[in-house]
From TrEMBL:
One of its GO terms (molecular function) is ammonium channel activity. Residues 34-313 form the Ammonium transporter AmtB-like domain. It is a multi-pass membrane protein. This is Ammonium transporter AmtB-like domain-containing protein.
Length: 320
């Protein structure tokens, strides 16, 4: 009798849990947990934008803006799963403009190392990048304020994600994108790697890796190009296409709920820590620096705003 026949069946067929454990062994548990939490924090920015837009609008339009942001979030999630991630981050497309359908419906996206870090699985990387797309479209939905309809905006969202956001993300963040190859500077473009020499374990040197001489080509962190510039220019174009609001509606315009504005601002502030901190794709010093910079930037912006408001109005607080 052969050796295979003598081997018990349960040892010849690996248990799914054992295969999953082997797949997880190549990743860093701390980095995976950190990026997962940061992705969830970025998701909180979507309701933060909804609260902010709702509070800044008139009462009659408040609910429609919340609905537009929520519905667009669902459309983006479906589009990203369907083909958005593949169009933006497919590693096999070499045209430099847009990806192919290698990862259609997240096929072949599970336990492979991610483009952002070999210590993070690609499935988590796709989730984290999806939340950036959700926030981008949520910002864009502000163009609907008091004059746009929700259903046409959802059709526009799916098309815009496919022909605008995914190509721009591919240009800047995909290792095969033309912008990435040319060294286009986006947020967190320089990577800091602490290296400790074996002969001097107590000393640490910091090596700055520039785009021209990277040790290993990795996808860059999300930043201002595909997110802020794309949403801002597209929102301007959408507003221009919808047309100007009537002059009668613009007279004595005031936000209907300042409390919602404050709530949305703090939720955005909270989520932005994951937005910037997670861009390091690991629980490391670079992430802590990004979080600290985010806190300082938000704090100083608030202080300067209050000082300017006091200089103009000669008082602090709500205007009469």
């Amino acid at each position: 009798m052969s050796q295979a026949a003598d081997t018990p069946l349960e040892t010849r067929i690996p248990h799914p849990a054992l295969a999953l454990r082997d797949a997880n062994s190549q990743f860093d548990g701390g980095d995976v947990s950190f990026i997962a939490v940061c992705g969830i924090l970025v998701f909180f920015m979507v309701p933060g934008v909804a609260f902010l837009y709702s509070g800044l609008s008139r009462r009659k339009s408040a609910l429609s803006l919340v609905w537009a942001v929520a519905a667009s979030n669902a459309v983006v999630i479906f589009q990203w799963w369907f083909w958005g991630y593949s169009l933006a981050f497919s590693p096999t497309a070499t045209n430099g403009y847009i990806g192919d359908l290698r990862s259609f419906a997240l096929r072949k996206v599970l336990g492979d190392p991610s483009p952002g870090s070999p210590l993070v699985p690609e499935l988590l990387y796709s989730f984290y990048q999806m939340e950036f797309a959700c926030v981008t479209v949520a910002i864009l939905m502000g163009a609907l304020a008091e004059r746009g309809r929700v259903f046409p905006a959802m059709v526009f969202t799916f098309i815009w994600m496919t022909i605008v956001y995914c190509p721009i993300a591919c240009w800047a963040w995909n290792i095969n994108g033309w912008g990435f190859k040319w060294g286009v500077l986006d947020y967190a473009v320089h990577h800091l790697f602490p290296t400790t020499p074996a002969s001097a374990s107590t000393s640490t040197t910091i090596t700055i890796i520039t785009p021209q001489h990277p040790p290993k080509r990795r996808a860059r962190a999300p930043g201002g190009g595909p997110v802020e510039i794309a949403s801002g220019i597209s929102g301007l174009a959408y507003s221009w296409a919808l047309g100007r609001r009537s002059e009668r509606e613009l007279r004595n315009f005031r936000p209907h709920n300042v409390s919602l504005v404050g709530l949305g601002t703090f939720v955005l502030w909270f989520g932005w820590l994951g937005f910037n901190g997670g861009s390091a794709f690991g629980a490391n010093l670079r992430a802590l620096v990004a979080i600290w910079n985010s806190m300082l930037a938000a704090a100083m912006s608030g202080i300067v705003w209050c000082l300017l408001d006091f200089r103009i109005e000669r008082k602090c607080g709500r205007r009469s």
